[in-house]
Amino acid sequence: MVELLSPAGNLEKLKIAFTYGADAVYAGVSHFSLRIRSGKEFTYETFQEGIDYAHALGKKVYVTINGFPFNSQLELYRSHMEKMAAMGPDAFIIATPGLVKMAKEVAPDIPIHLSTQANVMNVLDAQFYYDQGVSRIIAAREISLRDLEAIKKTIPDLELEVFVHGSMCFAYSGRCLISSLQSGRVPNRGSCANDCRFPYVLYAENPETGVAFRLEEEEGIGTYIMNAKDMNLASHVDEILSSGVVDSLKIEGRTKSPYYVAVTAHAYRQAIDDFYAGRFEAEKYQKELRTTKHRGFTDAYLIHRPFEREGTQSLESSISEGTHQVQALVDEHGLAFLAKDKVCEGDEMEILSPEPLEERVGNERGEIFQKEDGSWWLKMKRLETPKGKTYACIHSGNENPILLPAPLPPFTFLRKPLDG
Fold first, then answer.
1. Are residues 163 and 301 in the same domain?
2. Would you call 294 exposed, middle or buried from its count of C-beta atoms within 10 A (0-12, 13-18, 19+)?
3. Same domain, residue pair 155 and 188
4. Which CATH number characterizes residue 400's domain?
5. How does pLDDT run across 386-395, given as a tens digit for each residue?
6. Which family is annotated (predicted)?
């Protein structure tokens, strides 16, 4: 069965990813990965805790060491690899040939996964890295399923991993310099400022006179010329798995919210399981994925060639939108929730649970009930903390847990449709 690989920006997200169906997660510590902001949420101590947690479940953790180092950083990378290797991760994710060589010296027993930043698009490059000891290639987002089939046919023992969901970069496989040029933040070392999401004003200049003219925009069209839509291949999971050449489906998003981690893992877990059970239903997964914040969706290039695709750019806005707002997150014990938005007495919230619910509940604290469409809901009658303090309403940022009318599975989300 194909592996489902989710992002883990911190220890909580790691646990949520596994709770909602991921087989493995990828994560990193500090600036040695390409997500400095998420890397700061893991310490070496909590990363070890995450690895131990995963292994206790029979699941895996892959360490991102996929930055592009300067000469002055090489010994820091070596020291970091040694520390990470001692924790017993299941693979290193690396982007450069030199660091592949270093990893083989420092930790010869740890598998090496080649980052998508290495831009592997063909059999020749795949063979080169395989000969260097790479066991898995995370293919460039621009690759086609046909090219993956050719690589697998030539090198059947090489594992192939593909992105199926998440943010897309304007630049080729994320190899971008726009942020470096404008703000000095280097994307290829993990500090991208997302300059491609900004609005831009366009000018035309006459080189002979030096006169510049501002180009007027048609109202409503916008100037987000570099803003890519988010990848969403949930409707094509059946086609991808039918090919028999993909070993791992990867979800982007170490800096995304815990809710995003939960929903994407849940939806793609369903898609994978339904495919193998012969009941694949694309719209079911898409309905759930639309509840997350996104910039619009595109199926990108795995199924279609780049020159055959239209609608991969979101030109009107870079604001992320979704169909639902998260109200609360049930804690790891399943007895209370923490508010993520305003929650008041009498509020009804839809339940997103990692496990099927079966029992209706009603008491002085609230009700858990099922609607005709099969969805489960929670109505809060009394907002009470374990210490007996009560609220008429509780707001995001208030860290007091609110007792549930009955236990729910840990990391259950409570949400509201934005149109209701």
1. yes
2. buried
3. no
4. 2.40.30.10
5. 999 999 999 9
6. Belongs to the peptidase U32 family.
Is residue 24 a contact partner of residue 61, using CB atoms and an 8 Å limit? yes
Q: List, as own/partner pairs, every contact residues 36-43 make where C-beta atoms lie below 8 angstroms and the sequence separation is at least 24, other chains included.
A: 36/189, 36/190, 36/191, 37/255, 38/7, 38/9, 38/10, 38/254, 38/255, 39/190, 41/9, 41/10, 41/11, 42/10, 42/11
Q: Is residue 248 part of a domain?
A: yes
Based on the fold, state whether residues 120 and 68 are members of the same structural domain: yes
Task: Mark which of 282, 308, 334 sits at the end of a domain.
Answer: 308
Same structural domain, 398 and 302: no
For the ranges 35-44, 253-262, 399-408, the lowest mean pLDDT is seen at 35-44
pTM of this structure: 0.89
Q: CA neighbours within 13 Å on the CB side: how many for 241? A: 23
Q: Is residue 319 part of a domain?
A: no
Alpha carbon distance 139, 300 (integer Å): 14
pLDDT of residue 38: 46
Q: Are 23 and 95 members of one domain?
A: yes
Euclidean distance between CA atoms 343 and 392, whole angstroms: 9
* CB contact at 8 A, 6 and 25: yes
Q: Give a yes or no: residue 318 inside a domain.
A: no
Structure tokens at 391: 């609220």
251 forms beta bridges with 165
Q: How many domains is the chain built from?
A: 3
Range of the domain at 397: 324-417
Q: Which residues of 1-32 are buried (b: 16+ CB within 10 A; e: fewer)?
A: ebbbbbbbbbbbbbbbbbbbbbbbbbbbbbbb
| Cα distances (angstroms) measured from residue 90 to each of 65, 93, 114, 164, 221 | 13, 10, 14, 21, 47
**CA–CA separation, 8 vs 178, rounded Å?**
26
Say whether 419 sits in a helix, a strand or coil: coil
- Residue matched to tokens 């991921």: 22
Distance CA 127, CA 389 (A): 64
Mean pLDDT, the chain, integer = 90
Residue 221 lies in a domain: no
